[in-house]
């Protein structure tokens, strides 16, 4: 089952804002608290897949490509390919930059 949300307001909104939001939603549109709009526009979708995230966690632990490959039962080439893909998606040049950025964004 999927729930549909047409509005989201903060609990301390003025009553006039609540009434206006109800009218807006009733007319078929969506309503959101003005205080939440900047947050919503700052959210980014995570471009990393599960394997890339897993390998970035291993990088964070200080593991080398060889160590990661052995621990995850992958070839070193596969590890390098996934990490390279993560670097490209995050627009960074180093593994540790990728870890830092992914953590800042809440993606790992």
Structural overview:
This protein is mainly α and 108 residues long. The chain folds into 2 domains: 7-42, no CATH class; 50-104, Arc Repressor Mutant, subunit A (Orthogonal Bundle). 57% of the residues lie in helices and 4% in strands. The chain is built from 6 helices and 2 strands. The protein has helices spanning 15-26, 37-42, 50-60, 65-72, 76-90, 95-104; strands at 7-8, 31-32. It has a two-stranded parallel ribbon. Strand 1 (7-8), helix 1 (15-26) and strand 2 (31-32) form a beta-alpha-beta unit. It is elongated. The chain starts with 6 loop residues before the first strand and ends with a helix. The relative contact order is 0.12.
Terminal-residue CA separation: 28 Å
The largest β sheet comes out as: 2 strands, parallel
The 3D shape can be described as: elongated
Question: Which radius of gyration do the C-alpha atoms yield?
Answer: 21 Å
Order of secondary-structure elements: EHEHHHHH
Strand portion, in percent?
A: under 5%
Which structural class should the secondary elements be placed in?
mainly alpha
User: Uncertain runs with pLDDT below 50, 5 residues or more?
Assistant: none
- Name the CATH architecture of the largest domain: Orthogonal Bundle
Mean pLDDT across residues? 92
Q: Helix content range of the residues, please?
A: 55-70%
CATH topology of the largest domain: Arc Repressor Mutant, subunit A
| Strand order within the widest beta sheet | 1-2
CATH first level of the largest domain: which class?
Mainly Alpha
Number of strands: 2
